[in-house]
Amino acid sequence: MTEEEFKYDPEQEENTKKYRLPFALCKANGIVIQDWWRPRDAWEALKRGGHVDDVSEEYKEYYRKIKQQEAAENRIKNKARRKAKEAQLKDPQHNPDINYKHLSNHIAGAERGAPMNFEQADSGKVNPFIKQTYNPFTGKGLIGYKTNCQTCVAVYVARRKGYDVRALPNLDNKNIYRLEQCLRMSTKMASTLSN
Q1: Which residues share a beta bridge with 106?
Q2: What does the alpha-carbon distance between residue 119 and residue 139 come to, in Å, rounded to a whole number?
C-alpha cells in the first residue's frame, strides 16, 4: 500500500457528528476501541462482536504516527494559547480590576442613562471584540470573545435598560459572574422601585 491510500480520514470532514456514533456504541457495548480505528472500523467491530479483520500492521502504525503528530501540534498550539490568555488577563481592557466595588445604580462602573432601542443596544456594541477572535494558527487575536454568549445576553439587557457596557471575554475569571450579579441586583432594584 502507498501512503496516498491511507490519507482519507472521514473524521476530517466538516460534519463530524455522524462519525461519533459508532465509537459511542462501541463504548456502550464494552468493545475496546483501538487508537487506529476510523468510524468504519468501529461499525465493523459492532457487526462482528468486537473485532476488526483485515487491517494491516502498516496501517495501524501509520495512523498512530498521525495521531502522535497531531498531539504534538496541539501541545504547541495550547502553549501559545495559554501565553496569549495570560497576556490578555493582564490587560485591563479585557480583564477589568478585580477590586471593583459595585456602586448603586451602576453596572460595571457605567451609570444608568436613557434606555436604548434595539439598534442602539446591539449593532455590534454588545461584543465589539468578536471579530478579533484568537487564531490558533497565527497565535494572534483575543481569547474568550467567541465563547461569552451568556455575558452577551446580560450585556444586551443592561444596554436596553440604559447602561453603556460591553461584554467581557470568557477567560475563566470571576468578572463575568460579577457582571451577571450586578445585572440581577439592578433588575431587582428596578422591579422593587416600579412596585
Answers
A1: 111
A2: 33
C-alpha cell belonging to residue 103: 456602586
Instruction: Give pLDDT tens digits for 83-110.
Output: 988 888 888 888 777 667 778 888 888 8
Cell of 11: 473524521
DSSP string, 127-192: STTGGGB-BTTTTBSBSSSSS-HHHHHHHHHHHHTTB---PPP-SS-SHHHHHHHHHHHHHHHHHH
Task: Round to whole Å and give the CA distance between 63 and 1.
Answer: 14
CA distance 23 to 37: 9
Integer Rg of the chain from CA = 25
Q: Which three cell numbers stand for residue 48?
A: 462482528
182 burial type by CB count under 10 A (0-12 exposed, 13-18 middle, 19+ buried): buried
Distance CA 16, CA 10 (A): 8
